[in-house]
């Protein structure tokens, strides 16, 4: 596995960015900071919006689980 993000293709880099955006939204929601998930979703390339929603649901779920154990 290549750990160098500079070596990724444009498509792969867009996917990484969409995942990062989803994680950022979930963390901001958990910390009660202003964020509009719908707006962030619309900023993603159209073909990655489903992926963004999947990752957002994943991160929200994981943050809820970790919140219970705190």
From TrEMBL:
Q: Mind listing the GO molecular function terms for this protein?
A: DNA binding; DNA-directed DNA polymerase activity
Show the Gene3D superfamilies listed in the entry.
Answer: DNA polymerase III-theta (1.20.58.250)
Q: What is this protein called?
A: DNA polymerase II
**What domain of life is recorded for the organism?**
Bacteria
In Pfam terms, one family for this protein is: DNA_pol3_theta
Q: Which species is the source of this protein?
A: Rahnella woolbedingensis
Q: What is the lineage of its organism?
A: Bacteria, Pseudomonadati, Pseudomonadota, Gammaproteobacteria, Enterobacterales
GO biological process: any one? DNA replication
């Amino acid at each position: 596995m290549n750990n160098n993000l500079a070596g990724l293709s444009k498509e792969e880099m867009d996917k990484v960015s969409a995942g990062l955006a989803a994680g950022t939204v979930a963390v901001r929601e958990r910390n009660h900071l202003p964020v509009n998930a719908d707006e962030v979703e619309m900023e993603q390339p159209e073909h990655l919006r489903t992926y963004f929603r999947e990752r957002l649901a994943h991160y929200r779920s994981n943050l809820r689980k970790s919140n219970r154990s705190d």
